[in-house]
Design brief:
Blueprint (H helix, E strand, L loop, with lengths): L2 E5 L6 H10 L8 H13 L13 E3 L5 H9 L3 H6 L4 E6 L4 E2 L3 E3 H8 L9 H8 L10 E5 L2 E6 L4 E10 L2 E8 L5 E5 L2 E6 L1 H9 L4 E8 L17 H4 L7 H5 L4 E5 L4 E6 L11
Parallel strand pairs: 4-11, 10-12
Antiparallel strand pairs: 1-5, 1-13, 2-3, 3-12, 6-7, 7-14, 8-9, 10-11
Helix pairs in contact: 1-2, 5-7
Length: 280
């Protein structure tokens, strides 16, 4: 069953937009003409460029909530945070953040943000959803067939951490779930939301103008999460004079879509052979 959501297909070229509507969505009418009309409507609805795109206001987490941040630093995330000493915790304005993600699932955002006080979410509420102290319990299904293993999860935060020679006498795949924090990076002087799209979207719809998050500098667009394979908006669009932002999602400028449910799959296989020595 498709899932209602909103998408920034108006920032795509027409051929990419129509392909995305076919491959990732369930369009009401699946003809070239109808999909092109959808793209035309989505592009027209984008409106004027977002003011201060990529340049949000950034503030410190108030001292009144220092205890919560200390809880993060010494709780289950302690090892990750100790391994990344340059990471900071900040309050960052939502609307101008650059958005490389194509779509947001409405139901997923609602689930994340159900605890927020409508119209006036508190910082305590925002900290709990954007920087949770308690790790969630994502699930993944693992199946083995012969000399092949597949790991599958509805949680798209499933990630391949390392592959190849992962330890002494161990060659394979190390997987984990991405840190469930709202995460903002600065690259080339511009600020990108790289994780927490559904929480930022839901928080903004509930009335929040800023969210608490992890913040850091990165040295490349790949570190910022911007892909070269078409899985995100390209750097040329994100560094343009009219880039996609969170304001387009929360300000009514995104196009309503019916999205196909997606699973993330990691797959590894191996083989064993006997071969003649080449010296003989």
């Amino acid at each position: 069953m498709p899932i209602p959501g909103v998408s920034l297909i108006g920032f795509m070229p027409p051929q990419q937009a129509t392909a995305y509507l076919r491959e990732s969505c369930v369009p009401a009418v699946d003809t070239d003409e109808a999909l092109l009309e959808e793209w035309t409507q989505a592009q027209a609805n984008l409106g004027a460029p977002t003011a201060n795109a990529g340049q949000p206001n950034i503030a410190e987490i108030p001292e009144s909530h220092a205890g919560y941040i200390e809880g993060l630093r010494h709780g289950p995330w302690a090892q990750v945070l100790q391994q990344n000493p340059t990471w900071e915790f900040k309050l960052i304005q939502v609307a101008p953040l650059l958005a490389y993600q194509f779509s947001i699932l409405s139901q997923k955002s609602d689930n994340h943000c159900a605890v927020l006080t409508a119209g006036a979410p508190t910082l305590d509420e925002l900290l709990a959803i954007c920087l949770p102290q308690i790790p969630p319990t994502p699930s993944a299904h693992m199946s083995r067939t012969g000399q092949s293993i597949m790991i599958q999860s509805r949680d798209l935060n499933l990630r391949c951490v390392n592959a190849g020679h992962v330890a002494d006498n161990v060659i394979g795949l190390h997987f984990a779930f991405a840190l469930p924090f709202a995460h903002v990076v600065r690259f080339n002087g511009r600020h990108y939301l790289i994780n927490g799209f559904h929480r930022a979207y839901g928080a903004a719809l509930a009335g929040a103008t800023e969210i608490p998050c992890v913040f850091r500098e990165v040295a490349s667009h790949l570190e910022a999460g911007i892909r070269d394979d078409g899985a995100t908006f390209p750097l040329s669009v994100l560094e343009s004079n009219n880039p996609p932002t969170l304001n387009h999602f929360v300000g009514g400028h995104a196009h309503p879509v019916q999205l196909k449910p997606m699973n993330r799959v990691l797959h590894i296989s191996w083989a064993e052979y006997l071969v003649p020595d080449e010296e003989f």
